[in-house]
């Protein structure tokens, strides 16, 4: 239940200033940040917590997750009974919240029923922003049938464990986009390139025709939202951005000219480097098919270079992870990987204000500001000096708050 809390002597760090704001006092009530001051805030009814030596941050935001991906083998995951897939999702989301992620954007698989379950308090987890099922062409990145499985692809469209649905041709793409929006999708995701996890599409494959992508973009715009696209190769990224795709997922093989195009068109990148490290180290042992294992290094080896290329071009980069199955536990390690080439403050921005911009919730989440949702974490120490304080399954987070309610509270210890 929401209560009135005053955080005293807080060092606020949300990415908007290079070193944060020191010695601030923050009052939380009714699920929102009600007051921020450089002087003590007095209240007879509020609980007061001294954060001297600790850092107050907005709840973290992961813009590329698959909460229904309980198994690494996504073809098998799509065959799970819905009840089992839902229990996997509940466990995965609870773990995300325990790591300090108070909002996640699911880019393929989650349905509005999971959003309702969270909002009704039936399960514990972050705020969930969904695209419903990702759209893919026959043989594309969400088609897991393989070469000898000739079932009608619709068998998986309505299964909770399936990350996507198949649509071929302009009219079918329009229908699929409209249908996902009808079912509660807040944006549309398309598979516009080959992928690692799918069996029949090499990385360089282009997904959908130009006309199909343009039609999906039009439908998203008609619904006052945007299109996110699975993209690796420079050719695929440039094509998608020219056709109006706003959210570029992965982008490992991008080149400088295309990064400049992204900046010009206002597209936002969502790199997901940690998943390739996890897949390389653990994928095979956790059931990733051999055809997928063989494709990992095609994208993994260019990951850090892609960050530098996009930074040089001024492209906004949101935080994403794209983990599967038991590898979800590596979610926070993306901070450390990015920190190898990016300044810590930019990595923090990617999971706060920049992530909120991509999701379309600027001013509501991802910052410590009067009127914003009281989604907050308290870090023991200074993440600017050590990004690993945001890892280790929330070990260094003494408090996690979502909508003004503590989901973890070790502040008295």
TrEMBL record:
<dbReference type="InterPro" id="IPR057744">
    <property type="entry name" value="OTAase-like"/>
</dbReference>
<dbReference type="InterPro" id="IPR011059">
    <property type="entry name" value="Metal-dep_hydrolase_composite"/>
</dbReference>
<dbReference type="InterPro" id="IPR051781">
    <property type="entry name" value="Metallo-dep_Hydrolase"/>
</dbReference>
<dbReference type="InterPro" id="IPR032466">
    <property type="entry name" value="Metal_Hydrolase"/>
</dbReference>
<dbReference type="GO" id="GO:0016810">
    <property type="term" value="F:hydrolase activity, acting on carbon-nitrogen (but not peptide) bonds"/>
</dbReference>
<protein>
    <submittedName>
        <fullName>Peptidase M38</fullName>
    </submittedName>
</protein>
<feature type="domain" description="Amidohydrolase-related">
    <location>
        <begin position="55"/>
        <end position="395"/>
    </location>
</feature>
<dbReference type="Pfam" id="PF01979">
    <property type="entry name" value="Amidohydro_1"/>
</dbReference>
<dbReference type="InterPro" id="IPR006680">
    <property type="entry name" value="Amidohydro-rel"/>
</dbReference>
